[in-house]
Each structure stands twice: as structure tokens, then as C-alpha cells.
Amino acid sequence: GGEAMVRAYHVTYGMHTLVTRGSNTFGPYQYPEKLAPFFITEAIDGRPLPLYGDGRQVRDWLYVDDHCAAIDLVLHQGEPGRVYNVGGDNERPNIEVTRLILKLLGKPESLVRHVEDRPGHDRRYALDCAKIHALGWRPAHTFEEAMAATVEWYQRNEWWWRKIKTGEYLEYYKAQYAHRLAKARRGA
Known about the structure:
This protein is an alpha/beta fold. Helix content is 49%, strand content 15%. The chain has eight helices and seven strands, in the order H-E-E-H-E-E-H-E-E-H-E-H-H-H-H. The protein has a three-stranded mixed β-sheet with strand order 2-4-6.
């Protein structure tokens, strides 16, 4: 893939390259196909939240401002040819993230619909962030405050996401979730 090509240019031509790999990044202006903005916008409208499987898949959550700060640090202080993993030190199961979103919106947990999981869906993603930590970087925001700020942003900016959640997005949603939600309603 692309990372191998970047490495090849560094080794072969001595090109000054840097690579960052971020964990699940969330925050304002995120396209509403990803879990956080999707569940926030669906819950605002009181629609069911299609949570894959038992919701115990663990992901590390990284606030967008923290991710940007890490990239800036790597650009200025990173060692050429290196790959820096950037994680938020916020490993949480998807069900916990979903419950926090519902709590922040004052919505009931009854909106959660457990749906058939994707085949081969990983139970946990994790990154070793020792290299970025060695540069002195740590997330500046707690998960809870970052998610609260994100929820508030989506509440205040319906003008932005409502126009996105029509047309092509609506077709994507139907393709990804309609059959799973129908199955969940039937109790299959």
C-alpha cells in the first residue's frame, strides 16, 4: 500500500518522509458514516442506533484536535523514515461509547438495536504509541469532554449534517443497515 511506497522512497532516494497512523478519530465535521457522528445524528432524531453484535468491540478514541497536534509535532520533530502511531489512550467498547452519546443527548438506551455483526469484524484495534510519546505528545482532552464537545457541535450544526444525510448518504445507509435493522426488529 501507500505506506510501503513512502518507506521505499525514504530508503531508495533518501526522501524525508514521515508517516502517522491514528486511532479512531472523532470530532466536528466528521462525515456521518462513522460511529460517533452517525449515532449522534441518528439519536438527535430519535432513530434506532444499529450497534454491531454485542457492542463489545474495543476501539481507541482520539479527538480530532489531539490528532492534529500530534501530526504537527511529528512534522516538526519527527525522525525521517519513521512511522508514528497516534492513539488517544481511550480504549472503550462501542456499547460504552453509544451509552455516553445517549446520555449526553438525554436519549433512552432503548434506541440501541443490536444488529448482525460484519463478517471478520475485529474485536479490538490497538496501537503502540511509544514513539509519539517519546516526542512528548499526549492527548490534551479527556474522552468524556471531547465527546461532549462533539455532541454539542452536532446539535448546534444541523445545517451542516442534515444536507449530507440525504442522496448518496441515504443510499449508503440503506445498503449498510436497512437489512440488519429489519432482522433485529424480527428478532432474527
